[in-house]
Amino acid sequence: SEAKCHATVVSGWFTGTRSRSAGKPSKAQYFNNPMWPGEAHSLKVEKILYQGKSPYQEVLVFESSTYGNVLVLDGIVQLTDKDECAYQEMVTHLALCSIPSPKNVLVVGGGDGGVLREIAKHDSVETIDICEIDQLVIDVCKDFFPRLYVGYKDPRVRLHVGDAVEFLRNSPEGKYDAIIVDSSDPIGPAQELVEKPFFQTIARALKPGGVLSNLAESMWLHTHLIQDMLSICREVFKGGVHYAWASVPTYPSGVIGFLLCAKDGPPVDFLTPVNPIEKIEGATKDGREMRFYNSEIHRAAFILPTFVKRELEAYNTSTEKEKPEKPAAKPVKMKVMRDSAITAS
């Protein structure tokens, strides 16, 4: 059936939070998206390139005046030619440049291929699995976003079309050095992807010392969501949890966040790239140059504005106070030193 999301184009302008008035498409009404109520972002449309609907979502692609081609899912801008580099490069290299020689990597979502393109810059990587539920997104990006789709052409890539949660459940324990979650906003079915069971499933699939890079919303709009995700991830990932951010003009508020988590094992220092992109052979050669990420940006991404630090620290303090006290352990006579690897969190 015809996609509804193209009705968000009115008088030559696309607006990310519009809905169609019955019988009056020229007088579209604004509504509050639950992820960013009271806001709307508009782009001038030169030409509608594609509109359609999959079993999962409505898909729109249009050529804009200033950002090149734009991909819209269910009326929400997902990426543009101009600024996709900021998200794709950061969500990938914040993780892969924080561990030495990553070999096996999984992408959850990411059907446009941009994260694949970035992972392929790491010569140490041997296998790249991607699990994307919507074949239409893959096909549309092949036709209209060739600079992203190039990621699929790497021979190390193995595409799995289906449910990522089920894929992870069936993955061998400890298979991946890194998992990158490039999913839609956590509303509707995607809500499952920000809940504790999902993160536990990811942790199971990671090697000791393996890392997760996960979308973590905007610090200007979603501190409550960020607080909840940090709390959950600190229970699951004992190797460390950090919040980072980057500027993406077409993302709501112009800022996007990332959660970087490490499974207990070999220590991971996210704050300093131990595997700097500048030293990876071929990562910056012709056709593969970075447009946004570098080692300086990596370090700076973890420096948070004062109000964010204050809110996250206050939340951590309050949640610690709410935890019930553990009963005192009974004294035991230790005959063998076997538990030296157990550390307090």
Structure report:
Mean pLDDT is 85; it is low at 18-31 and 328-345. The protein has two domains: 5-80, Roll (Spermidine Synthase, Chain: A, domain 2), CATH 2.30.140; 84-322, 3-Layer(aba) Sandwich (Rossmann fold). The protein is 25% helix and 28% strand. It has helices spanning 84-96, 114-119, 135-144, 146-149, 164-169, 196-205, 223-236, 295-300, 306-322; strands at 9-10, 13-15, 18-21, 24-30, 42-53, 58-64, 69-73, 76-80, 104-109, 127-132, 157-161, 176-182, 206-215, 240-247, 255-262. With 345 residues, the chain is α/β, with parallel strands linked by helices.
Rg calculated over all Cα atoms: 21 Å
Beta content comes to 25-35%
In which range does the helix fraction lie? 10-25%
Count of individual beta strands: 15
CATH architecture descriptor name of the largest domain: 3-Layer(aba) Sandwich
Structural class: alpha/beta
N- to C-terminal separation?
Answer: 52 Å
Shape: globular
List the helices and strands and how they pair.
Layout: E1 9-10, E2 13-15, E3 18-21, E4 24-30, E5 42-53, E6 58-64, E7 69-73, E8 76-80, H1 84-96, E9 104-109, H2 114-119, E10 127-132, H3 135-144, H4 146-149, E11 157-161, H5 164-169, E12 176-182, H6 196-205, E13 206-215, H7 223-236, E14 240-247, E15 255-262, H8 295-300, H9 306-322
Parallel strand pairs: 9-10, 9-12, 10-11, 12-13
Antiparallel strand pairs: 1-2, 2-5, 3-4, 5-6, 6-7, 7-8, 13-15, 14-15
Helix pairs in contact: 7-9
Q: Main traits of this protein?
A:
345 residues, 25% helix, 7-stranded mixed beta sheet, disordered C terminus, Spermidine Synthase, Chain: A, domain 2, 2 domains, Rossmann fold, alpha/beta, globular, 6-stranded antiparallel beta sheet
